[in-house]
């Protein structure tokens, strides 16, 4: 199957991409059942049935991987991320399978893998995919990378760098999952934000409004609710 890698999106992209990562799978499925056309809905149900019947990896490429590739044409841009997440879940894709899809896929397929991580990988095994996405300048990929999986498992240093990357590339800070808790009382993040603001001011460039929002969060204590995020633990 021929795959074409998409050109990175511009920093002006403002689409919130974390919906498929944050929404329960049952809700995603119900939403697609309501909003897809009849033919698209029938195609998705067949794809999910195939993936559930033949999960994992079979040969050079599995049937559910073919369905991932055609999901955009079948379901349309508005619903393709959710459809791909559901297919990956039905196929019970493990970190090895997710890595293969990510490495071989288009930018859109990579984004779907990132959205699927909190639904499929309970531990930090898929962090290399997050780290790879954070090295790109594709703003939609970056937005997907700073979702719930990164909030749970990314270490403090790399999480802070991810926040700065969002500010630098124009990814809305609202894309960063669990921002309030992870930024709360983070003196090192405050220092990094201050340095970045000073650099931009010295260069005669405006300081992003989102930077001030995050800086204000660093001055407050994190919310008291529990989480498994490695907040406050340097690697």
Provide structural commentary:
The chain contains 14 helices and no strands. It has 235 residues and is mainly α. It has a domain of 136 residues. Helix 4 runs antiparallel to helix 5.
User: Per the principal axes of the C-alpha atoms, what is the gross shape?
Assistant: elongated
Number of helices: 14
User: What is the succession of H and E elements?
Assistant: HHHHHHHHHHHHHH
Largest sheet properties = none
The total of beta strands comes to 0
Counting helices, strands and paired strands, the structural category is mainly alpha
Give the rounded overall mean pLDDT.
88
Strand content: under 5%
End-to-end CA span: 40 Å
Overall helicity: 55-70%
Residue runs with pLDDT of under 50 for 5 or more positions: 1-17
Kindly provide the radius of gyration, computed on alpha-carbon positions and rounded to a whole number of angstroms.
19 Å
């Amino acid at each position: 199957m021929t795959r074409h890698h998409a050109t990175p999106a511009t920093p002006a992209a403002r689409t919130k991409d974390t919906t498929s990562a944050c929404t329960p799978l049952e809700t995603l499925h119900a939403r697609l059942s309501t909003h897809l056309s009849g033919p698209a809905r029938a195609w998705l149900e067949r794809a999910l049935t195939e993936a559930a019947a033949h999960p994992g990896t079979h040969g050079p490429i599995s049937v559910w991987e073919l369905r991932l590739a055609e999901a955009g044409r079948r379901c349309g841009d508005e619903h393709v991320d959710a459809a791909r997440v559901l297919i990956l879940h039905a196929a019970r894709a493990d970190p090895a399978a997710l890595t293969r899809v990510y490495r071989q896929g288009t930018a859109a397929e990579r984004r779907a893998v990132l959205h699927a991580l909190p639904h499929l990988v309970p531990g930090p095994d898929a962090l290399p995919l997050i780290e790879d996405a954070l090295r790109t300048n594709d703003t939609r990929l970056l937005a997907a990378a700073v979702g719930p999986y990164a909030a749970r498992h990314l270490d403090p240093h790399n999480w802070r760098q991810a926040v700065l990357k969002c500010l630098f590339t124009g990814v809305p800070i609202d894309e960063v999952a669990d921002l309030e808790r992870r930024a709360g009382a983070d003196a090192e993040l405050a220092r990094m934000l201050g340095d970045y603001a000073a650099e931009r001011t010295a260069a005669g460039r405006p300081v992003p409004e989102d930077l001030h929002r995050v800086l204000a969060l660093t001055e407050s204590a994190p919310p008291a609710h529990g989480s498994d995020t490695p907040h406050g633990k340097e690697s």
